[in-house]
Amino acid sequence: NQLQKDLEEVKELLTKATRKRLRDVLMTEKHKLELEIKNQPPPKPKDVVEEEKSSLGGYTVKINNYGWDQSDKFIKIYISLNGVQKLPTENVQVNFTERSFDLLVKNLNGKNYTMTFNNLLKPISVEGSSKKIKTDTVLVMCRKKREEKWECLTQVEKESKEKEKAAYDTSDPSEGLMNLLKKMYAEGDDEMKRTINKAWVESREKQSKGDIPMDI
């Protein structure tokens, strides 16, 4: 298991680290890895795995597109799959843990479909969670353990948003603008890059003439 190997390496580094800042970073990483390992679905017995492989047939497609919504009690994930309502109920399986779920749809138009969510933002109730099959849609209902609003689905998403926010959260407004422009330039198409280049050149020309006192 790769996660277990990562954890062992982090523990090894912790025994050698002497700087407080480095130890804090390693301790945070150690905690994250332990959480991921804890929340992994339990391994299935070998005979069950072999039976599933033989019953699948066809080839397996990983689902990446989905929509989600929430109510006070549930996180709802909508997965579009044409004709899924025609399958036998046992062909659509969802396994839940407190911080994850995985979906398996077997033999839909000659293909199998899988989706896995690890590290959900907050704990869910395994017993209270379920699935519903609708026309061309699978609805996964994750029952919240606490009735509170989730700002995103997973811990990884939350950390990614916080890093992005930190990158543009600065006491210097001109620095924040520069970071934003750099991001737009890096992610933009050719037209966006031309627009930013033009604006940059024009602002430099105005500044050199004394029209703009501050460097943007």
UniProtKB/TrEMBL annotation:
Gene Ontology cellular component terms for the protein in this record: cytoplasm; nucleus
CS domain residues: 61-154
Pfam families for this protein: CS, SGS, Siah-Interact_N
Residues in SGS domain copies: 139-216
Signal peptide segment: none
The keyword Transmembrane helix belongs to this UniProt entry's keyword annotation: no
Cross-referenced InterPro entries: CacyBP_N, Calcyclin-binding_UBL-bridge, CS_CacyBP, CS_dom, HSP20-like_chaperone, SGS_dom, Siah-Interact_N
Cellular localisation: Cytoplasm; Nucleus
Key words, A-Z: Acetylation, Cytoplasm, Nucleus, Phosphoprotein, Ubl conjugation pathway
UniProt GO MF annotations: S100 protein binding; tubulin binding; ubiquitin protein ligase binding
Gene Ontology process terms (BP): heart development
Top-level taxon of origin: Eukaryota
Described purpose of this protein according to its UniProt entry: May be involved in calcium-dependent ubiquitination and subsequent proteasomal degradation of target proteins. Probably serves as a molecular bridge in ubiquitin E3 complexes. Participates in the ubiquitin-mediated degradation of beta-catenin (CTNNB1).
Name of protein: Calcyclin-binding protein
